[in-house]
Amino acid sequence: MKRTTTTRLAAGLVAGVLALTACGSDGNDADVATTEAEAAEAAEVGTIVDVAIAAGTFDTLVAAVSAAGLAETLSGEGPFTVFAPTDEAFAALPAGLVDALLLPENKDALVAVLTYHVLGAEVPSSDVATGAVATLQGEEIELVAGENGVTVNGANVIAVDVEASNGVIHVIDSVLVPPSIDATALLVADAMESEAMEEEMEVGTIVDVAVEAGSFNTLVAAVTAAGLAETLSGEGPFTVFAPTDEAFAALPAGLVDALLLPENKDALVAVLTYHVLGAEVPSSDVATGAVATLQGEEIELVAGENGVTVNGANVIAVDVEASNGVIHVIDAVLVPPSIDPSTLLS
What we know:
Elements: H1 5-22, H2 29-41, H3 48-55, H4 59-67, H5 71-74, E1 80-85, H6 87-91, H7 97-101, H8 107-115, E2 118-119, E3 131-134, E4 140-146, E5 149-152, E6 155-164, E7 167-172, H9 183-196, H10 206-213, H11 217-225, H12 229-232, E8 238-243, H13 245-249, H14 255-259, H15 265-273, E9 276-277, E10 289-292, E11 298-304, E12 307-310, E13 313-322, E14 325-330, H16 341-345
Parallel strand pairs: 1-7, 8-14
Antiparallel strand pairs: 1-2, 3-4, 4-5, 5-6, 6-7, 8-9, 10-11, 11-12, 12-13, 13-14
Helix pairs in contact: 1-2, 1-3, 4-8, 11-15
């Protein structure tokens, strides 16, 4: 009697779990052999996508594959090896990240994340060895095969050798994010875009938008301490290159506290106004070159194929609208040449 795809998958999962522990339990050898034999006798299985759907534990992965337009690819001839995160693995990601990845404007990032879990060859667990392996996404993952099992970029392989007609699935307990994808940037852009798209509410000033975003607490505190809140709530228009809280945290230890001291107010004003242009410059108008800031000194903009940088800092989100200008988010704090941070720390 033929077995269903679900039965086949269950047998494969059992075989995988047993295979992970077989090296430490000689008494299980017969059970492993029996299970593998049963799997071999089962009817032809479907593709990797079919198997994932039938399993019922990869709903988020299946939805992501569909949204990314990869279902046809992973149903193709292959062969492939997929390190498949469970629904629990996706649920453990930072709040909002899955929703952000599923947005149409983030499709490229979603494709990158998913193909980072796929190898362009069939690699059964018996062939897994410690080392770096190139993925379909282009970047490498790091496999470590040890006495306690296998990890992929630190994620645990919790079941192996789930067979499909076009490859094999190994189940992992975490989602892998390629180094080239900045998850924080996706969350910031999504949060700020959501705020900007609330059509029923009037858009506030640059200060209002920054406060509402929740990702610029240090910037808002600094603007308040510098007495610039009223200025940046004024008519404008302004363009603000806004560093995230993480950007301020990356400054030398003690520098933020030093800038917030009353005796260093002039330096704080200089640093903050060095992030502000006295005109509204949407991303579509950004061009490579030097631009004068409200502080008086210039910043260097570079617009290239990989995006925009400001004095080397990456612009990670653009065109966050406010009633008196626009915000572009950057991943580092800009310090004007006239400010020597070491004097503030001494």
